[in-house]
Amino acid sequence: MNPEFFDLELIAMQLFSGVALGAVFVMLALGLSIIFGMLGIVNFAHGHVFMVGAYAGVFVMERTGSFWAALLFGPLMVGALGLVIERFLIRPLAGRSPDDPLLLTFGLGYVLVEGVRILFGSDGLPFATPEELSGVADLGIGFFPIYRLFVVGVVALVLVALWYGLERTRLGLIVRAGARDPEILRVLGIDIQRLWMWVFGLGIALAALGGVLAAPMRSVNPEMGTVVLGEAFAVTVIGGMGSLMGSVVAGLLVGIVVSMTALFAPEMASIAMFAFMALVLLVRPQGLFGKPGLGV
Amino acid sequence: MNRQGPGHGAVSRRTLVRGMAAAGTLAGIGMPFVARAAEPIRIGFPTPVTGPFGAEAKDQIRSAELAVKQFNEAGGLNGRMAELLVRDDKLNPGEAATRTLELIEKDRAHFIVGALSSAVQLSVNEITRSRKVLYISISQSDTINEAKDFSRHTFHEALNPHMTTAAVAKHAFKKGTRVAYLAADYAYGHEMLRGFKRAAAAIGAETAGEILHPFGAPDYSTFMPRLRAMRPDILCICNFGRDQANSIKQANDFGLKKASKIVVPVLLHNQRLAGGADAFAGVVGASNYYWGLEETVPTAKAFNDAFRAAYAGAVPTDYGAYGYTAVRSLLMAVQAAGDTDTDKVIAALEALKYDVAKGPESYRSCDHQAIQSVLVTESKPKSEMKGEVDLFRILEVEPGAEAMLRTCDELGHRA
Question: What is the ipTM of this complex?
Answer without folding.
Answer: 0.90
